[in-house]
Structure formats: structure tokens, C-alpha cells
Amino acid sequence: MARCRVVYPLHISGSWTDACSSIVWIVAAMFMSQFAFLTHAQSPKLPRPLHIEKIRGDLYMISGDGGDVAVEVTSEGVILGDDMFDRNHDDLLAQVKSVSDKPIKFVFNTHYHDDHSGGDAKMLPIAEIIAHQNLRANLAAKKQPYYEDTPGTPIGLPQVTFSDEASVHLGGKEVRALYFGRGHTNGDAIIYFPDEKTIQTGDLFLARTGAAAQKLFIFVDYAHGGSLFEWTRTLDRALALDFDRVIPGHGPVSTREDLLKFRSDLEAMRTHIIGLIRQGKSKADIANTMESDYGWKSAGCPPTPPVPGCLSIQQLDSLIEELKQ
Question: For the chain, which domains are there?
């Protein structure tokens, strides 16, 4: 018969048999709680409703769940910038159909995160997907930490990759994808719609409104080549383009001035953190500053595994290491 071996005194009232039984039930309860959490965490998420709005000319933006999607309508077909989560595919197609009866011909990816390129697998049978070569490598490798909003959804690898620039000409329209360097990841592309004087940034730029207007909650994905040092240089190259409207990674359509302000605040944040490092501040001190001054989530975040809302702070060691140089 199995025995419960006690290796140090337990202060539990009742007999040793009762104590052993209590231990067994505690362990079982812990296991069931962990199992229930994992089961809940991996449950499929329902898509939120999407909506489409006109920016100008033949250019639209779809938003509502995941990253913002650009929609360029032409007489020969539709060109998309990003395709949200896998779960958004059907609604995304319905939104496109509401402004054009032409098929989707091309999809540009701004970066590899699944709230922006998670729909690639379902787009591959109907459209050509174009992305920076580092984006494809990131999707193929899927290094950690990598948070998937819905784990287990299929990954679609782009068929066409580029190193510096790629252009699509369709129905008298040109759409260009440009790689200006590292920032959010090492494969961020700026999608440029010259006819509408609009760029799409992916998460190189996030629109800030309301209470978040003075915050700077960004994610430098160091596991996939991101860089806070190079982020502003990348934005400087994007700002050399001729545009006055911006489709951000998340949030409402923005202006060139909004992007300039974001870039300035990013540089100021970086300078602030470098100052803290040079003052010899601890990681905990820097984490508290990131939470109080810039809106990063710190309290309650475990070091691992990747947790929603915690990815930024979970790469704080890498950020400090980069800014020490």
C-alpha cells in the first residue's frame, strides 16, 4: 500500500493519516487548478466585430480586432496591408466586399505578430503574400518569447519576400513596401500608398488617444531582432516619404504630426532610461518607472512564459542591455 512520507514536521491538526490525505488533496487541487487555467487559456477566442472606413480616394482602413488593415481598391483587384488574426478572416473578407466586388490579389505584411499576419494561412489560397525576408524567417522559426493570441492557429509563410523594397502595380495603382531598419522587430515594413499620400506603419507607430495620449506602451521584440536604439532612425527614414496620413498598428487614422510626436516621445523615453541606467538604478526601479511614466505593465507579470500585456516588461533585461552600450 502506498505511504505518505513526511520529511519535515507538519503542523496540521488531526492524525498523520489526515495530514497525508490533506497533502494529497492539496496537490490534486493545485493540479486541477493549473489544468483548468491552461484549458481556459487555450480556448478559441471569438472575433470582435470589424468595421471599415474610408481614408481618401480608393484607400480604406479596417479595424476592430487585432491590428489595423489597409485596403487599396483598384479596377483589377484589392491590395491589403496586413490581415489581422486567423479568426477575423471571414469578417475581413465581408468588409472588403462591402467596398469592392474585385478579388483580393495581394497582401503585404507589416510584421510577423499574429494580430497583423495571423490571417496569412487563410489568405494564401486566394492572394499573394509579400513580406520582408526577416518576417518570413521569424514566422518559420517562432522563437520565444512569442505570445500567440490564440495558440495553435495555423501559420502561413509569405510566398514573396524582399530585402529593401517591393512594389505592386495593379489597376493603375502602385503600392510599395519599404524596409528602413529595425525597431519593433527586425522585419518591420512601411507600406506606402503614394496616390493617397498615406503610409501604414504596423506597430512601429501606435496611435495614442484619451488617457493614453501621454503614455508610450511599446513592445521592443528583442527575441526577433527589435531595437530601441534603431527604432527612431527607422521612423526618420519613413518620415522622408511624401505623406500626410498614417494607418497605425493600432488606433485611429493619424497624421504626420502624430507620428512626429510619437518619434520625439520615443527618443525622450530612451534618453530617460539611459539616464536611469547610468545612475545605477536597479531593474526593479526601471520597471517601476516604465509602469508609472509610460504605461507598461509591470506588477503581477511573471518573468516567463509570455503573458498578454507583459511581453514588454518581460524583455526589460534585453532593453537594459542594449541601452548600456
Answer: 51-266 (3.60.15.10), 270-324 (no CATH)
Alpha helices by DSSP H, 118-227: 120-123, 133-141
Distances (CA, A) of 38 to 32, 35, 42, 313: 10, 5, 6, 22
C-alpha cell at 291: 509602469
Task: Write down the number of H helices and E strands in the chain.
Answer: 10, 13
Instruction: Give dist(CA 246, CA 10) in Å, integer.
Output: 64
Query: Which pLDDT tens digit goes with each residue over 102-146?
Result: 999 999 999 999 999 999 999 999 999 999 999 999 998 876 545
Return the amino acid letter for 62.
Answer: I
Residue 100, C-alpha cell as written in the block:
469592392
259 within 8 A of 246, measured Cβ to Cβ: yes
pTM: 0.85
Sheet holding 165-170, edge to edge: 165-170, 173-178, 190-193, 198-202, 245-248, 254-255
Instruction: Please report, for residues 110, 111, 166, 284, the alpha-carbon distance to residue 186 in angstroms, rounded to integers and kept in the order given.
Output: 11, 9, 17, 27
